[in-house]
Queue: 2 jobs
Job 1
Amino acid sequence: MGSCLIQSVNQNAIINTSTKILPKKEYSPLTPDLNVNFEICKTKKSQPYTSCFFEVKGLIPSPNEDPFSEKPLNYIGNEAKNLCSGENIGLTCRKGLNDHMNQDNLAIISKPPYLFAGVFDGHGENGDIISEQVCKFLPQILLEDIEMSVDPVDCIKNSFAKTQDSIKRKCKEINIDCQYSGCTATVLLITKNSMFTCHLGDSRAVLLKKYQNKLIALPLTTDHKASDPIEKSRILRNGGNIEKILGTEVERVFIAKDSNQGLAITRAFGDIAFRNIGVISEPYIKEHRITSDDEFAVICSDGVWEFIKNYEVAKVLEVNNCEIAANAIAKLAWSRWIEETQDVVDDITVVIIPL
């Protein structure tokens, strides 16, 4: 997500209304070759990732990374790379066309009988650090809770609250300002028969179901934004302000009417300055019982969903395995950003889990 100048498309969570508009950088952004297969291919239906221990997490990249470069990933476990390729789990995390490090991150962790899959989209000056810390703390706290098999919903709520506390302590310890920096979190916790969606912010998850030899996409999450009546009511009750920026219809959350800092989402990790006006880290939680018609669960940051529809993701997965589809979706998202904005692309993350 990241922070950027006001003249950019409204994909960013933190907007600094006092920032002066700077001259555009000279970029020559090329749309990556899509190489999308459009011939039907069979997808193996299995869940090998729930039977062994492994983890995959994004690392902090080099400050000199190129646009669309892949975020470095840390694989732990003998089968980690095999289980995150081909017809198994598909994933990619790409830097956008912007002036900051890739602030997206991801985590795939198997601790039988659970699979944790999460996408975290940072924003603000230190959004890359916040997303990296959430990537570390949240799965660790959740998967080590001995009450998971008894009351998973309560454990999920507690893990999000403890992660927020851990972020505050860690930022103070390493002298990182997280007053106006934070990140989204969209997590799937999968067992053999159930899938829990745990969600903050505006990254999204969708379920792809088989229907008459096609895939249909069903949303698993709703964006936590000020345009949502329930979210708006909480912000206003707590003394926050909601305003539109630069004549757009997109609403932002402000601490005070004369504040220069606006937040595009109403739930997030970090963002300490907004806590007293109703911005919370309490997740939306939903349980789905997995059926034989459920084919894939897909999590993407808003760098994908800004210009790609749910049904388009389903179409790509109808004819490609998870590894190919993840990269094809990322390339398609990049090309749409270039078509729409010419010189701005948000960070892009895709995670695909076969069910």
Job 2
Amino acid sequence: MASEKIHIVFGETAELTLLSIKEMTADVDSVVSLNDDLRVGPINLGSLDGRVERQNWVTSNLPCKEDAAYLRSYVTGDFDKIQSIRDNSKDKAEIYIWCGRTTSERLATARLVFELQGYFSNLTIADIPKNGNIAESLSVMNPEQVHLIHKYFKKTDQEEYGKWVTMWARLKSENSLMRVARADGVIESKEVSYFDDTLLSHCKEELLKAARIVGESLVDIWFEASDSTLNWRLVQLVKSGELEVDGKLNCLREYKVKRATTKTKQP
């Protein structure tokens, strides 16, 4: 009997893209989407207390309350999916990880490989090269491009496996709330204020929409953070007195900010 072929992707868009490729039906028994953005927040996820800590952090810090429920669900959802993948690994399932070049996908891959210790021989991970012909992630790829990724999957050996495990163990032990890739691709822990100067550089003396400031900043930082993360930091800059606000500090569409004339902290 052939082993089950489980394909791991990152984000609901990537899942829909892969499922839409009829030519791959014979090579895909199931698709699992991991959705939690591990670039921000606590990541000691090996215990129930650590997962609850992450859920509480997401709910209390990321300001758009409309997003809180699904962001919380991603924490438990990803954990449950990984446990299911572990169970399938015991039955010799073939695990294909569609890891792109983005920091979020590499972090999620490192976490998954760490959790699958002892089953590295089951893993095949995409290694997408840096060139202009292939998108950096399945989530931004046109369906007709997907077949181009196949040749970049490679079986995980002990050395490659060890690199992923070491990366996750290091970042987890550093207890940071922000993780960013350097120009050479190495992912490092950073202070939560890491992107604040970029945000401030796009703020003026007149009111501007928060969505505009975050959008321009995302381009400057090569999308190394999500819009919800930059929204959180923009709110913190208001609370610290660096910026003045007009509107409700919630989702990006609900407020505008400008440079503060006098620095006054908000409660």
